Amino acid sequence: MQPRILRFLLLVTAVSLLAACGSGESNVTSGNREGILHFGNGSEPQGLDPHVVTGVPEHFIVGALFEGLATKNPYTLEPEPGVAQSWDISEDGRTITFHLNPAAKWSNGESMSATDYVWSWQRLLSPALGSEYAYMLFPVKNAEAFSKGRITDFSLVGVKALDDLTLQVTLDERTPYFIQLMDHYSTFAVHRATIEKFGKATDRFTPWTRVENMVSNGAFRLKTWQLYRRIEVEKSDTYWDRDNVKLNGIVFYPTENVVSEERMFRVGQLHYTASVPLGKIPVYQEMADTPYRQAPYLGTYYYLLNTTRPPTDKLKVRQALSMAVDRDKLNKTVLQGTNISAYSITPPDTLGYYPPKLFDYDVEKARQLLAEAGYPNGEGWPGLELTYNTSEDHRKVAVALQQMWQDALNIQVTLTNQEWKVYLDSITEMNFQIARRGWIGDYVDPNNFLDLFLAGGGNNNTGFASPDYDAMIQLEAPQAATREERYAVFYQAETLLMEQMPIIPLYTYTSKHLLHPSAKGMPPNLMDWTNFKYVWLDKDWQQASKGD
Amino acid sequence: MWRFISLRLLQAIPVILVVITVTFFLVRIAPGGPFDSEKAVTREVKAALETQYKLNLPLFQQYTAYLGDLAHGDLGPSFKYPGRSVNELIAAGFPVTAELGFYALLVALCIGGLAGIIAALRPNTAQDYVPMSLAMIGICMPSFLLGPLLVLIFGIHLDWLPVSGWGDIPGDKILPAITLGAGYAAYIARLGRAGMLEVLSQDYIRTARAKGLPEWQVVLKHSLRGGLIPVVAFLGPAFAGLLAGSFVVETIFQIPGLGRFYVQAAFNRDYTMILGTTVFLSVLIVLFNLLSDILAAWMNPRLRAQFGNN
Questions:
Q1: In the CATH hierarchy, which fold is given to the domain comprising B91-309?
Q2: What is the pLDDT of residues A51-91, one digit of tens each?
Q3: Nearest CA to B79 among B48, B36, B35, B45?
Q4: Which residue, of A207, A354, B9, B41, has the greatest Cβ tally within 10 A?
Q5: H helices of A103-214, where?
Q6: Mutation for testing the B interface, residue in A267, A283, A426, A462 having most B CBs under 10 Å
Q7: Other Cβ atoms within 10 Å of B56 Cβ, number
Q8: Cα–Cα distance measured from residue A475 to residue B122, given in angstroms and rounded to the nearest whole number
Q9: Chain B residue with Cα closest to A225
Q10: C-beta separation of A176 from A445 below 8 A
Q11: How far lies B142's CA from each of A120, A301, B53, B155, B235, in Å?
């Protein structure tokens, strides 16, 4: 009895192991032949309802399935026609009229109409839905009031369907980046009949986004959704611009572990990775014909200084701390030279805007400032606690800064790491002295970074409050007639901000990916955004690279 | 026997109730909530979200409502994945984790059992030291080291096996099963050796040898059943441990199992998901412990006699 069972088990194991051996061609090879892009997407999306989800992995999938009134050209980031084939902006910039493309259809074949947008925006702004991105539409007249429940009549909100193909939007003020927002998934139209079939418009958790139920309007439609395994989309045959869609489909993988993702790329399971392990970057950088691609990214890594608690309530202490940081050295050693030193909050060249640089790495000046603040050579220093969320990379940066402050100013800084949600709680409650923070822009405009520091803003978290600053951001900038004037106001505001130094800017992010040479039409850009309509796969990439 | 089983099942009920209660209140004490995110959420939005998920009710009312739903087998909606219920997420993740656990256990039993028996046959010789040293290494080597090592060798350099996935590419289940099973193989080898050594020194084995039975019959027929009792007693908790502890292996190999859901849920403060998985796993652990007790009783005549008297 016993040996027979044992023998049987051995046999079963051996057979199943053998049967499993001999993997065939890689995803990349078969994908190039069939026109299927294999895309490392970072994590399992929370969902696919454009009005409910937040986050980058969701952005890519929703962006493949849906299309906004306008889309972005991946090379220039300038708006391009999407569902709307054109739009007119009135002289005062407050009225925008979108002309919908008559060929724009839902994936079930129904034509799209301007009323789809009125209904969808009402859904996004409904207080009961609790959409975290409702504020994207706040430039629209009365949108904020409706969203916060101050008015309940949606007809007062500035969005009207003049006829089936004409949508008129009225804004509170001139908003130069409003067309850009039409490419953000929160402002996309969703299919009313489908949503109402499965529940109320404001229900967050109905099954309307499942494969069998989903109706969308983008270049692709949902084909399979296997939790934590893969999401497959296929080319839509109802999409208005289907002749220009070159891919037949995309497979999105929830590649949560960056190290595993890199291994998948190496064996040809992926065309594109969501990120690259920091330790592997030097190896890739030295390769000839490297698949590694790095580009400036619209985001800033900085430390928050609590201006309401000693010792960081003293301006000179804040300035001393910031000036004692050698950002270039930090970037070279800890960050493997993969980022760009930052001296202000807005990333350089944000649609032509460059932030002011008010200070430089200056140990002498930092020591002097600290002495003036009452701590000559660190004497009498009360100690300082630096809080960051648990992560190896954040720890490395924190340790480097701790050392720099010790060496330059002779002061002690202790490090505290906190689990993500605990850390978020500390930030929100301003229960810290110095804390790590990062901000990634939602749209390419200095406003997206500078409005963080409005008095009492939810993402301010420093206690910085200046009526002058608020007036410049909220009143002067929107009234500026030209881009130059507007940027001049922003420059002035940002100067005011950095004079007060409520943050220690450290570096501007870069996007880092591995990209297979056969994948084309995925240019690097500041938003790290891929418009899948532009992507194609070159079957003959090996010959092409030999021919060069 | 039946009395023993029903008694153990009855004992399990208060245990699981305590688990639910402690988990329910602990996750709520933890700082941060399911709707905190890096971008500040306005008060209005947060209130709306809390209403949608009934978090605006008094805590005790939430607790009783949860118990009520649980009695109907409803574990509630997931906070992190809107549109998915916890039941659905467990149903998606558990079969994968169970399959992985089963293969890992198979690997552990084959390798560990064999090594243990071989070692016990010639104690304190090279035949003993070599497999036991390997077992020691197996216990010491964590899966987050062994997994990537195996991938580097078999996946990348030799290109024999896929580096990740589960059921997508033929052969992608082999490396995860070995990685997860290795540590348990080592334990089983040590337990098997100890058990076999004890049995081999018993009088009835001497009798068997004395009557001239060939060695393989002595080992397989007479010693194995007794010698592997400690191993069987270990299997229940081991399988439960495999289910609850497969997170690391699932992450390394990008396997869509329950372990990943579970740990992610804790990071996300996905209250219903944390509770649901905890309840589910605690029920399983209780059941597997019971099962291994029954199996051990079946293999051990002395224990069986005890049940018989009851």
A1: MetI-like fold (1.10.3720)
A2: 999 888 999 999 999 999 999 999 988 899 999 999 999 99
A3: B35
A4: B41
A5: 114-125, 143-147, 178-181, 192-197
A6: A267
A7: 12
A8: 88
A9: B92
A10: yes
A11: 51, 34, 39, 19, 20
